[in-house]
């Protein structure tokens, strides 16, 4: 990675990736030369998809876009960001309810690393009420989520819930 590239890390569980996430990523690509989508290993959270499945869905969604890289990580986010040469953490906020938690995390990350800034982007109005958990619930009960996720994610959700129904 070139020294002059402005790299941001966009961390999250992405279980699954939503069009709200995609909106933040697309807009982040207009600010930064490269956005690394970093899927968090969080063993304490019960995820629908494995980290590997999430990474694959995200890669399929962005289909080799040069300014986007997909990776996974565990441990401290700022350590990962520094290791990857990132200057910023990209975060999306949907509503005022996100603010307190995001602000706390940003302050903690800032105290751990003065080199990595946190950049907040407000989610597009269209996606303000969209979340991975709401999308999973709608998909589980056969709701039409086609306008809320990418095609690769929609296909994986249908496949996952069909598999779970057969158990």
Structural notes for this entry:
The protein has one domain (7-128): HUPs (Rossmann fold). The chain is built from six helices and five strands. Helix 2 packs antiparallel against helix 6. It is of the alpha/beta class and 167 residues long. The longest helix has 17 residues, at 96-112.
Which tags fit this structure?
167 residues, 5 strands, five-stranded parallel beta sheet, globular, alpha/beta, Rossmann fold
Short structural description:
α2 (51-62) links the parallel β2 and β3. The chain has a single domain, classed as HUPs (Rossmann fold, 3-Layer(aba) Sandwich).
The CATH class is Alpha Beta
How far the N terminus sits from the C terminus, by CA atoms, comes to: 46 Å
Order of helices and strands: EHEHEHEHEHH
Helical stretch count?
Answer: 6
List the helices and strands and how they pair.
Elements (H helix, E strand, L loop, with lengths): L6 E6 L6 H13 L2 E7 L10 H12 L5 E6 L3 H7 L4 E6 L2 H17 L4 E6 L9 H9 L10 H16 L1
Helix pairs in contact: 2-6
């Amino acid at each position: 990675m070139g020294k002059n590239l402005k790299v941001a890390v966009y961390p999250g569980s992405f279980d699954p990736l939503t069009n709200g996430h995609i909106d933040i990523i697309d807009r982040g690509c207009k600010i930064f030369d490269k956005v690394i989508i970093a899927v968090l290993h969080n063993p304490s959270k019960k995820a629908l998809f494995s980290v590997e499945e999430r990474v694959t869905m995200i890669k399929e969604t962005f289909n080799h876009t040069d300014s986007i890289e997909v990776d996974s990580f565990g441990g401290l986010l700022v350590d990962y960001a520094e290791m990857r040469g990132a200057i910023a953490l990209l975060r999306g906020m949907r509503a005022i309810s996100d603010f307190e938690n995001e602000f706390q995390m940003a302050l903690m990350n800032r105290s751990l690393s003065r080199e990595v800034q946190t950049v907040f982007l407000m989610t597009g109005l269209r996606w303000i009420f969209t979340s991975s958990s709401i999308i999973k619930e709608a998909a589980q009960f056969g709701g039409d989520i086609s306008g809320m996720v990418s095609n690769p994610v929609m296909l994986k959700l249908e496949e996952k819930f069909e598999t779970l129904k057969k158990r």
